[in-house]
Design brief:
The complex is a heterodimer. Chain A is of the alpha+beta class. Chain A has two domains: 117 residues, no CATH class; 270 residues, DD-peptidase/beta-lactamase superfamily (Beta-lactamase, 3-Layer(aba) Sandwich), CATH 3.40.710. Chain A contains 14 helices and 17 strands. The model of chain B has no long low-confidence stretch (mean pLDDT 89). By secondary structure, chain B is an all-alpha fold. Chain B is built from 17 helices and two strands. Chain B is globular, with a radius of gyration of 22 Å. Chain B has one domain. In chain B, strands 1-2 form a two-stranded antiparallel ribbon. Classes of the chains: A alpha+beta, B mainly alpha. At the A-B interface, helix 1 and helix 2 of A face helix 9, helix 12, helix 14 and helix 15 of B.
Chain lengths: 452, 429
């Protein structure tokens, strides 16, 4: 009998194991409850896996982009706004992974552990930093071309405009979107600004220029010669023209391939790679919780000619538009890259300081030197008339892609203290930077200037 | 039991005055059950008077039961009854809110459970009676289980891929034979008068256990087989204290399990979704995923009875009822419900210490351990912390067999309480 009594203590072990399991269950509820409740299968907030019962998404001026009214998800009444903000807001089914309706589901449905799904009614709205009107203008300006336009305040990090094309109207989603074979919907669920990578072309000469400024002391005074092509090792790099004798600044103005291919070959693999890394190209940027695609730059197997091509943004290099925007911002902001974001931060009492992306290391002196060069591009070559009243700086690019029209690039920033805006335009197979990308950039910037 | 010590006698005296005021607890229970019944009886502005009458009848019965037992039969300890009333009430309320017509069935099940409970309590009073039926009960229960399997296998057919349900009267009601064998299993296992509790006398029981578990495997009711195995381990340990034999049995079981998985891969396939339920949301992970989503949707206080969504998922009031309690009544009540089973286990250990004989001690601990283990398999299974085995949550899940078995197991625990058979003590002392 005594034995039996003593043996009864084995039950304590069971109780302990049970309570441990229960504790773990509670922990799981707390740790993963938000993800579970925000599942598309949760019929409290989704109907047939489409978000129906959630907070509103508004643009920076309070324009409602999408909201729930009487148990239905109601989109902005303008088709242009719906299409232009689709990739930022996110579609109803959640195919656009970086849209806030997907990324911020838990917040939008108002879930918290204590109150469950209907807990925080009224405080479930999200305000974005983008301006719906400017986005609409940007999409119009792109004129049906694929690509992306992103503009942000390089002092605060707010993304003011973010558009990706092709896009669709979430209210009237094309029925052939998943079956189409013509390619008109290629990557339609991708926000190209965040998730796309493209050959940078001449826009990458800025990176080569930064590397040269930091490693070759007399580069600013050196004379270069352009005869339409340059021999490098056993290969050669072709130029876009015959520029004759020119200095570094002029080389960047006219985007002379000979100058930058020569510099790249001279700098070598290690120095170029080091600069590319220092500028943060190897690391994804966390833009309001959405991770950007990583740019790639690999010259480990490049010969001299390859290195020359890499120096002018060809070869195997691919960059993400948001990263180019951040680089423009860093140059404009004295070397400090403010991390872009598009979901308004909730500031209490004091305003939050901008988040500096520590992955970007650019010293102030180099940044200022590049700023002067980029200002010279616009002033002495593209023409200030292309950017009225903006005191703009920038660099174009026409990235060659095999068998197709080149990507038209432009990125730059304004020097105006009251308009600290940087922009990147990338039109996929969209033509020439100067003729195709700059007009889009200017139209968006002028609209933005009105709203500023 | 002639050697009842002074300290034990003191404990007996002390216990007599330690029970919490019964009327107050009944009042709390009544308020809770009324609050829960309101949204069911007055759903959508209608008045379901039949259901209202059943709720009132249930509450009145609780008062009458305690009053009669206390005043007429001089019973003093009602803790287990209160717990069972509480849990059964929650199950019945949720069942009624999902299907108004299901309430009567559940009410009858509770009534049958209480009848079985009291009959068993009366029977267990005399250990000699227990010993007398031990062997016949073992033969009868094993033969019955085997017979049921043959009958289902060759006459009625499988339900959800398992042969563990007998459907009677064209689907009017169904019986799960294994639930009744659970009662016999503990009865047979704990019934021993041996003074020396050694390994020798567990072998016969081992054969009986192997027989039961074997039939359960044939029925493809792996969850219940696991529960039986677990109960066997607890009983075998308490009877023999022989850790070596128990380890041997465990090793044999593991080898057996490996062999089964090897020769019958479909058994393993049933558990393949474990820890991967989110990859199979529309197939084998369907129930677990819904349980997780809706269990957290209610928050700590719940969305209110009738406002949940898990109720629309199959088995919501049976296997998944814990998720439904979480969603509609809140995580606090849901956790309180399952922690109750840990408290019962504690209570059983305390009772075992002063039990009139080792039969009561072993039966109480085995019954409490079985309930706690089954609760674990149920709530951790549907939340994917353990593989899903499809066992019920005692008292709360809908179903007559499960309800009757739960009450019967409570009888074993109560029998060990020193206050249950005071006369037995006096005689022995």
């Amino acid at each position: 009998m005594k034995n039996t009594t003593r043996r009864a203590y084995v039950i304590y072990v069971l109780i302990a194991a049970f309570l441990f399991g229960l504790g773990f269950l509670l922990y799981s509820f707390i740790a993963h409850g938000g993800t579970w409740a925000a599942s598309r299968l949760n019929t409290h907030v989704f109907t047939n896996r489409v978000l129906t019962n959630a907070g509103a998404v508004k643009d920076r001026s309070g324009t409602v982009l999408v909201e729930t009214k009487d148990g239905k998800r109601v989109w902005n009444e303008q088709s242009g706004v719906r299409r232009a903000t689709l990739h930022t807001v996110g579609d109803a089914q959640g195919f656009i992974a970086t849209g806030v309706q997907t990324l911020y589901r838990a917040k939008l449905i108002g879930y918290d552990f204590v109150n469950g799904v209907y807990g925080k009614k009224g405080n479930t709205d999200l305000t974005l930093t983008i301006d719906a009107d400017v986005c609409k203008t940007a999409l119009e300006a792109m004129n049906g071309k694929k690509g992306t336009v992103v503009a942000y305040n390089y002092k605060t990090g707010e993304i003011l405009c973010m558009v990706s094309a092709p896009t669709f109207d979430p209210l009237y989603k094309p029925s052939d979107i998943d079956t189409d074979k013509t390619g008109k919907y290629d990557g339609i669920y991708l926000n190209r600004a965040l998730s796309g990578v493209f050959t940078p072309g001449s826009t990458f000469k800025v990176v080569t220029a930064i590397c040269a400024l930091e490693n070759i002391p007399d580069v600013q005074t050196r004379k270069f010669k352009c005869e339409g092509k340059i021999k490098l090792g056993k290969g050669e790099v072709i130029c876009n023209g015959v520029h004759g004798t020119l200095n570094f600044e002029r080389g960047l103005n006219v985007s002379c391939n000979c100058v930058f291919a020569e510099l790249a070959a001279e700098l070598g693999r290690d120095k170029l790679t080091e600069t590319v890394r220092a500028l943060g190209f190897g690391k994804a940027i966390n833009v309001s919780g959405a991770k950007t695609a990583r740019s790639s730059f690999d010259v480990s197997k490049a010969n001299k000619a390859d290195l020359g091509w890499a120096g002018i943004g060809q070869y195997t290099t691919l960059v993400n538009p948001m990263q180019m925007l951040q680089l423009a911002g860093a140059i404009a902001n004295g070397g400090q890259a403010v991390t872009p974001y598009f979901v308004k931060k909730e500031a209490k009492l004091i305003s939050l300081p901008p988040t500096i992306n520590k992955n970007v290391k650019l010293n102030a002196a180099t940044a200022d030197a590049v700023k002067t060069l980029l200002r010279s591009d616009v002033k002495n070559y593209y023409g200030d008339w292309r950017f009225p009243e903006l005191q703009f700086c920038g660099k174009t690019g026409s990235a060659e892609v095999e068998g197709k029209k080149s990507h038209a690039w432009f990125y730059g920033f304004s020097l105006r203290d009251d308009f600290p805006v940087a922009i990147v335009v990338c039109l996929e197979n969209g033509g020439i930077g100067l003729n195709d990308a700059i007009p889009v950039a200017n139209r968006v910037l002028q609209k933005l200037l009105q709203r500023f | 039991m002639a050697n009842l010590t002074k300290s034990r006698r003191a404990m007996l005296r002390q216990r007599k005055y330690r029970y919490v005021d019964r009327g107050f607890i009944l009042l709390l229970l009544t308020v809770f059950q009324l609050v829960c019944a309101v949204p069911v009886v007055f759903e959508d502005g209608n008045f379901y008077w039949k259901n209202g009458a059943m709720f009132l009848g249930y509450i009145v019965f609780e008062w009458l039961y305690v009053a009669v037992m206390h005043l007429a039969l001089k019973k003093v300890n009602f803790e287990l009854e209160f717990i069972a009333f509480f849990l059964s009430g929650i199950g019945m309320t949720l069942g009624a809110s999902v299907s108004k017509s299901a309430q009567l069935k559940q009410l009858v099940a509770i009534a049958l459970g209480i009848i079985v409970y009291d009959i068993l309590l009366w029977y267990l009073k005399d250990v000699r009676r227990v010993m007398a039926v031990r062997l016949p009960l073992a033969v009868l229960s094993l033969a019955g289980l085997a017979g049921a399997f043959v009958y289902i296998r060759f006459v009625t057919g499988a339900i959800n891929g398992a042969y563990n349900w007998i459907v009677v009267g064209h689907g009017l009601f169904s019986i799960q034979p294994s639930e009744f064998v659970k009662i016999a299993f503990i009865f047979v296992g704990a019934a021993t008068l041996d003074k020396l509790l050694t390994s020798k006398n567990i072998y016969l029981y081992l054969f009986y256990a192997m027989g039961c578990i074997g039939v359960l495997f044939l029925m493809k009711d792996f969850g219940t087989a696991l529960i039986f195995f677990f109960a066997f381990l607890v009983i075998a340990f308490m009877r023999s204290g022989d850790v070596r034999t128990i380890l041997f049995v465990c090793v044999a079981a593991v080898i057996g399990a490996v062999l089964i998985v090897y020769f019958k891969p479909y058994v393993a396939a049933r558990f393949a979704v474990y820890r991967h339920v989110w990859e199979h949301v529309d197939t084998s992970g369907y129930q677990q995923v819904r349980t997780l989503i809706y269990a957290v949707s209610g928050g700590l206080q719940g969305l209110g009875i009738g406002n949940g969504r898990l109720r629309y998922v199959a088995a919501s009031t049976t296997d998944l009822v814990f998720g439904m309690v979480c969603e509609e009544m809140g995580i606090i009540i849901a956790f309180a419900v399952v922690i109750t089973f840990a408290v019962i286990a504690l209570y059983a250990v305390r009772c075992a210490r002063t039990a009139p004989s080792s039969f009561y001690a072993i039966a109480a601990c085995a019954a409490a351990a079985l309930l706690l283990f089954q609760t674990s398999l149920n709530i951790f299974g549907i939340t994917d912390l353990l593989p899903l085995t499809g066992v019920t949550l005692p008292f709360v899940s809908q179903g007559g067999s499960s309800m009757i078995c739960s009450w019967a197991l409570f009888a074993f625990i109560k029998a060990a309480d020193i206050r249950t058979y005071p006369k037995l003590f006096k005689v022995n002392a």
